[in-house]
Amino acid sequence: MPCRVAAALRDALALMHRRGETEVHAAALARALRVLDGERRTARVGLPPRSGS
User: Fold this and answer.
1) Which of these, 35, 25, 31, 33, lies nearest to 1 by C-alpha position?
2) What is the pTM of this model?
3) pLDDT digits (tens, 9 = 90+) for 10-38
4) What is the 3-state secondary structure (H, E, C) of the chain?
């Protein structure tokens, strides 16, 4: 999942560049980076194996 979000962010920035946009709003970028970090951390979480009982 993090790869899809990173790819979507990359594609959005590429589209902005093609349109000639030169400003990235700090709040939007910070929000996107928090989402990426949260998804990266979530992917690392694992559950212990189920017990036999």
Assistant:
1) 35
2) 0.51
3) 888 899 899 999 888 888 888 877 877 77
4) CHHHHHHHHHHHHHHHHHHCCCCCCHHHHHHHHHHHHHHHHHHHCCCCCCCCC
C-alpha 17/C-alpha 21 separation (Å) is: 6
What is the model's pLDDT at position 2?
54
Which residues touch 42 (CB under 8 Å, ≥6 apart)?
1
- What amino acid occupies position 29? L
Stronger pLDDT, 40 or 9, i.e. the higher one:
9
